[in-house]
Specification:
Elements (H helix, E strand, L loop, with lengths): L5 H31 L9 H22 L10 H38 L4 H27 L8
Keywords: Hydrogen ion transport, Ion transport, Membrane, Transmembrane, Transmembrane helix, Transport, Vacuole
GO molecular function, one term: proton-transporting ATPase activity, rotational mechanism
Membrane topology: Multi-pass membrane protein
C-alpha cells in the first residue's frame, strides 16, 4: 500500500502551520494590547479564533482524502493520487496563506483597535476576506477530491 496514508497528514500540516502562525502573531498583538487596554482583550480575541478555524479546514480535507483511500484495494490509481495531492495542496496552501494574512492583519488591527476603537469593524472585514482565502481552498479541495475514483470504468 505504501505511503498513501501520509498524504492527508502532510496537507493538514500546511493548514496547521497557517493556523499556528495566525494564532501566534495575533496572540502577540492581543497580549501587548492587553497591557494598555485590558478591557478590550475579549473583544480583540477574534483574530485568534479565526486563525484556529484554519486548522479545522485542514482537518476536514484530511478526513475527506483519507476516506477516499481504500486500504483493501489492490491498486491505487495515479489519477486518484494526483486528485488527492491537488486537493490537499489547494486547501493546505490556501490555509497557510490565509493564516499569514490573519496573523499580520490581526496583530496590527488589535494594536490599532486599542488606540482607535473605530478601526474594529475594518479589522473584522479584512479578517473575513483573509478567511475567505482558506474557504476557497477548502471548496476547491473538496471538488478536486471528489474527482478521485472517476478514472476507472466500473
Amino acid at each position: 500500500m505504501g505511503f498513501y496514508f501520509v498524504e492527508p497528514i502532510g496537507f493538514f500540516f500546511f493548514s496547521g502551520m497557517g493556523a499556528a502562525y495566525g494564532t501566534a502573531k495575533s496572540g502577540v498583538g492581543v497580549a501587548s494590547m492587553g497591557v494598555m487596554r485590558p478591557e478590550l482583550v475579549m473583544k480583540s480575541i477574534v483574530p485568534v479564533v479565526m486563525a484556529g478555524v484554519l486548522g479545522i479546514y485542514g482537518l476536514i480535507i484530511a478526513v475527506i482524502i483519507s476516506t477516499g483511500i481504500n486500504p483493501k484495494a489492490k491498486s491505487y490509481y495515479l489519477f486518484d493520487g494526483y486528485a488527492h495531492l491537488s486537493s490537499g495542496l489547494a486547501c493546505g496552501l490556501a490555509g497557510l496563506s490565509a493564516g499569514m494574512a490573519i496573523g499580520i492583519v490581526g496583530d496590527a488591527g488589535v494594536r490599532a483597535n486599542a488606540q482607535q476603537p473605530k478601526l474594529f469593524v475594518g479589522m473584522i472585514l479584512i479578517l473575513i476576506f483573509a478567511e475567505a482565502l482558506a474557504l476557497y481552498g477548502l471548496i476547491v479541495g473538496i471538488i478536486l477530491s471528489s474527482r478521485a475514483g472517476q478514472s476507472r470504468a466500473e
